[in-house]
Write a structure and sequence with these properties.
Shape: globular
Oligomer: single chain
CATH superfamily: Glycosidases
Radius of gyration: 20 Å
Distance between the termini: 38 Å
Strand content: 5-15%
CATH architecture: Alpha-Beta Barrel
Order of helices and strands: EHEHEHEHEHHEHEEHHHHHHH
Largest sheet: 8 strands, parallel, barrel
């Protein structure tokens, strides 16, 4: 059994360049990745400044990227985060949201995700308000597929600590109110789930009244702590029989667009191979496909340093030695390792709080 795979570019931190996004689409399309949702937290015009129009240059590039995705058989989508609009969905907010939806239709968005993640609310009837907003959007959007990320998108109590205690029966209430055609994102038992099991997905699906759309926070490495590590290893803890309980499986990529393709390919392999899947072997095959044999072997040799030790535990001498090695490879993946070693991908707490 297979499941539809996709990318949801939903991380905090520096924005990718458009050619990098296209490269990732081309790398993953042969492995069954069928949708791409553009939703970086750093695009303020989709989040904190959602009610303002995108600059013309960005709008033009978004439309071009949409055409590129469609040309490669990948459904083009956008994740819109109308920041805390559920606290006061007034006439002004409705007018601004209608304009944004018209813009998204104009650039050819095929899938629209309304993202309510990482926002504060003390609204007791939060689920009802969010369902009403999604249905309001549904009536005005030309997107063929509509999804929502709930405010509480995981069992993880960290969400309650940071954004306020979740309302009682929030998930079941939201699922009961939403049109069955609307897909609902869920990250698992934790925000960055170490494992996702059929038993867990079955329980969540029962509460929602539909199969959840998995928002997988691997290999994403945003945040102050995670951005000090490269997430390269093959996927684990996602058994192939999860497919029966999922509406789709989207990965939130790492800050490094070329390197992201390595674990992404291993996820496709885990579904394809089922019980025969071996994450170490899958990593080696994917790394060679993306990086070429020599660079892949070098990355594998340094995997403990790059993924496990992290920047804060690499001495200056070791860092310089690694830079010397990777600067010798004329490859985008090696360039990303060098930029990471130089601290270019470091995500600060301020970024997370203000994006």
């Amino acid at each position: 059994m297979t499941v539809e795979l996709g990318i949801i570019e939903g991380f905090y931190g520096p924005l990718w360049r458009w050619p990098e996004r296209k490269q990732l689409v081309q790398a993953l399309e042969p492995h069954g990745y069928r949708f791409y949702l553009y939703a970086p937290k750093a695009d303020a015009y989709l989040r904190r400044r959602w009610d303002e129009p995108h600059p013309q240059e960005t709008a033009t590039q978004l439309a071009d990227f949409g055409r590129f995705c469609r040309k490669h058989g990948v459904r083009f989508g956008v994740g819109l985060s109308p920041f805390e609009v559920f606290n006061d969905f007034n006439d002004g907010a409705k007018k601004a949201l209608a304009k944004k939806l018209a813009f998204l239709d104009e650039i050819g968005v095929q899938e629209l995700a309304i993202l309510f993640d990482d926002m504060r609310s003390d609204t007791p009837d939060l689920a009802a308000r969010q369902a009403d907003i999604v249905h309001w959007v549904q009536e005005r959007s030309g997107a063929a597929q509509l999804s929502i990320c709930p405010s509480y998108y995981s069992d993880d109590p960290v969400l309650d600590r940071v954004f306020g205690e979740r309302p009682s029966d929030y998930l079941a209430t939201l699922g009961g109110l939403l049109d069955p055609a609307v897909r609902v994102f869920w990250t698992g038992e934790e925000v960055c789930a170490r494992e996702v099991t059929p038993g867990h997905l079955r329980r969540v699906g029962k509460a929602l009244g539909r199969k959840p759309l998995l928002w997988d926070n691997y290999p994403v490495n945003d945040g102050d702590r995670m951005s000090r590590h490269l997430h390269l290893r093959g996927f684990t803890g996602r058994p192939a029989n999860n497919a029966a309980w999922l509406a789709g499986h989207a990965i939130n990529p790492a800050l490094q667009p070329t390197l992201t393709a390595i674990p992404a390919i291993t996820l496709a392999e885990s579904y394809r191979q089922g019980p025969d899947y071996q994450y170490g072997q899958a990593f080696r095959h994917a790394a060679r496909e993306i990086l070429g044999a020599d660079l892949a072997d070098q990355v594998q040799a340094d995997l403990l340093t790059l993924q496990d030790a992290g920047l804060h535990r690499i001495s200056e001498d070791k860092k310089q030695a690694l830079l010397t090695i990777y600067r010798g490879y004329p490859h985008a993946g090696a360039g990303e390792i060098c930029r990471w070693l130089c601290g270019d991908y470091q995500v600060t707490d301020e970024m997370v709080q203000t994006q």
